[in-house]
## 1
Amino acid sequence: MDVVVPEEVEKEKEESLEQEGGERGASPEKEKKRFFYSKKVCRFCTGQIKKEEVTYKNVELLRRYIMPSGKILPRRITGTCTKHQRVLVAEIKKARILALLPFLAR
Ligand SMILES: [Zn+2]
């Protein structure tokens, strides 16, 4: 009779983690708030702003999406989704041509 010896298979896990830099003791949770903007949700998708409202005539709305200098705010700041940003930008450009919005404000 063969004696069955339970084989203990030990897998040697060699986790060699190479630490690349980061040994300066800098805390990763350190974040600087560069700009203050409210929550990033597409206001057009959520229904806060209706599709019909996005026209070149609605200067007050469009003005919220441009900088004081007249530049169009990027999506990452306003939180507008790609689809609606494109519509928005098109309307802003129309408004600019009609001199409702500035190309460049001083
Ligand atoms: Zn959207």
## 2
Amino acid sequence: MHTDPGSTFDNNLRRFVTETREKGAYPVLFNSIVRRNFPPEGATENKGSYEKEGNILVDTHGEYLISPRKVAEEMGVPFVDLNKLTHDLVVGMGVEKSKELFMWVPAGKYDFCPKGKVDNTHLNIYGGKVVAGIAIEAVAKVVPELVPYIRYRDPEVYVADYKDNKECAVSYTFDDGLQEHYTLVFPEMEKVGFKGTFWVCGNTIENEVARQGKSRMTWPQMKEMSDKGHEISNHSWSHANLKHLNSDGVKMEIEKNDSIIGAMIGKKPLTFCYPFNAFDEVILRQASEGRVATRTRQHGVGGDKSKSTVESLDKWVKELMIAGDWGVAMIHGISTGYDAFTYPDILWEHFRRVKNQEDNIWVGTFREVAAYVKERKNVQLDIVKKKSQWVVTPRLSLDKELFDEPLTMVLDKKGREKVKVSQNGKSLLVKDRDDKLTFDFNPYGGAIKISFLTK
Ligand SMILES: [Zn+2]
């Protein structure tokens, strides 16, 4: 719907403010970020992109920038002039460098866009991060109550979103302990070096009737997988819908399965998967106790129901990469059974394709990725920068028995090729990739010394 500043656009903003307040939340109004519009000298209209650009950033929003400020004043809402802040950012970066913030696609770089693309309106991931940083600082100025909740990321040294600074993460999780997960999936995953997560119900392994005529994995098979680094975890004792049980029933379903897996595999499950993906707030709290995480979102991968093809899985992974997200695949049948693949080869071909992009995709078990992400969200870095040495002290107050994944730190290289890193006197392996240096560290391990050696 088209709205005009000074009338319908302003009314719409008033409506947002009122409805937000009615829901008990606190609105903040912003105006729009700036467009990267550098018309050549003498140009009379704004075209958005130009063969040859000029030097002066010219506004394209007009009156739309004024309305949010006006409505904010009128209704007593905090206001952020994000247009001015991003205007100053783009001008500060200059005509050439400011392209880095927007969705410019160079010609010939990507298969999906061979001719390239000029886009001066939409931010890319980098631009999104820069502008979000500016926006949050500005919000904190007008709503000081938010200050304690803001985490700053130093652009020169920070914890990577995912292990080894990869762009996204994928966990392959297999439900219900089916025999094919051992006979077909396990060898195929081993071929490409991926480790999976297998959710099993003890009762369906132990009890002929509970097996419902489906072949299931045996405990020795699962032990063999676990010894190779795969995760054998808890899917409840009898695949009961936990929402139909009282809290004692839920407790029994969870604990009985923990015990048998612990006894048969030698490792207590540290994650949990809800049968039928059925849970509520109370069940979630109960199942999460003493655990790294439970599976609360998943992407169905298979045939009958999920209709996965090699191409649809490619697209899923591409979207994860663009969003910097963690994808959790939920897989049941392989060649037969619930949601089995049209051809199992679809999954194996998908594995090979992901393997080929291993530099950008972290394939980890559900436990590993969940632990990493929670540690990364909670760790705080105290950073002291001196000329030839930085000292970065991580602080993390999670249960270190549960959350024991090393984190990856990223260093902006900026001509600092020769870097030595040590934590607690132990030297850490520094990897060099593109314009970044990375190293793994122990988030509970105390101060990290980063020394820059002059040539
Ligand atoms: Zn299940």
